[in-house]
Amino acid sequence: MNNDSSETATQGDSPPSPRWLVLIHQVPPKPDYLRVKVRRRLRRVGARPLKNSVYVLPHSDEALEDFQWLAREIVTDGGTALVCEAVFIEGITNAELDAMFQPTQPAGPGPAAGEASWHGRTWVTRQGVKIDRMACAWLIRRFIDPAARFKFVAPRGYQRAGDEVRFDMFEAEFTHEGPHCTFETLLERFSLRDRALRAIGEIVHDIDCKDEKFERAEAAGLALLVDGIARAHAEDAVRIERGGAVFDDLYAHFEARP
Asked: φ, ψ for residue 226 (rounded to 5)?
């Protein structure tokens, strides 16, 4: 009796509802703008990358429509695309997937990003600053903490003290997160939605992460400027001042564009 009842209940259970939508796609290598267009659309709909050509969204009618429209565009442009529903995804847990779609919170103790208590802090990073740390120092002083003081330390042996805030270094409060460089992490944590800052973030990402994710044409030129600053000036404080002037001008350029 018990076995029969158990078996009947099992057979009567409905299959679990799909929790995730997965887009698996491939676009032709040329023209280059196709990859850029697809990446921008994926960011716009909030999809998260699992691999280079695999993206995921929580299951919903709206998300399904977004993926279906994008898949149709990819196929029309000569690529291939497949939209799948999944209850779970091999190699990553549902909890890990859920976390990818949660708002990022500051790591470690301290007030939430954007609060006044971040002002007047000592911001610590590794010695030998280059593109990401130069850009972050400019962003911090220009948009987050105008009274910021910067401290440059050896990558090994440093111990955090007092109200110091670490960026772009091991166990930092602000550093690379997932596919994001530290500049992008700061934009996200402090809710800086400025389109000019977003453009600069894409350029910094392409230079720092070397993955050509955004394929920004400006990346090569800015990389040369930053390399020149680093070669001409050994002092990190001088590097961020010189870099700050470059980013001021770059920001003015993007701010003025329609």
From this structure: -65, -40
**Residue of 230, 227, 189 whose CA lies nearest to 207:** 227
What are the structure tokens assigned to 236, written together? 């990190």
User: Which of 79, 102, 103 has the alpha carbon at shortest distance from 23?
Assistant: 79
The token duo for 145 is 């903490």
Contact between 207 and 201 under an 8 Å Cβ cutoff? The reply is no
Q: What is the pTM of this model?
A: 0.59
Report all structural domains of the chain as residue ranges with CATH numbers, in order of start: 20-100 (3.30.70.240), 116-256 (no CATH)
In this structure, which amino acid lies at residue 215? E
Rounded CA gap, 122 and 249, in Å? 25
| Cα–Cα distance for residue pair 57/47, rounded to 1 Å | 5
CB 140 within 8 Å of CB 186: yes
Q: Residue 103 has what pLDDT?
A: 56
DSSP string across 60-117: -HHHHHHHHHHHHHHHHTT-EEEEEEESSBTTB-HHHHHHHTSPP--SSSSPPTTSGG
Cα separation, 30 vs 254, whole angstroms: 27
Q: Which amino acid is at 27?
A: V
172-190 tens-digit pLDDT:
899 988 889 999 999 999 9
Contacts of 89 (CB under 8 A, 6+ apart): 20, 22, 50, 56, 97
Q: How confident is the model at residue 152 (pLDDT cuts 50, 70, 90)?
A: very high
Dihedral over Cα of 24, 29, 30, 35: its sign: positive
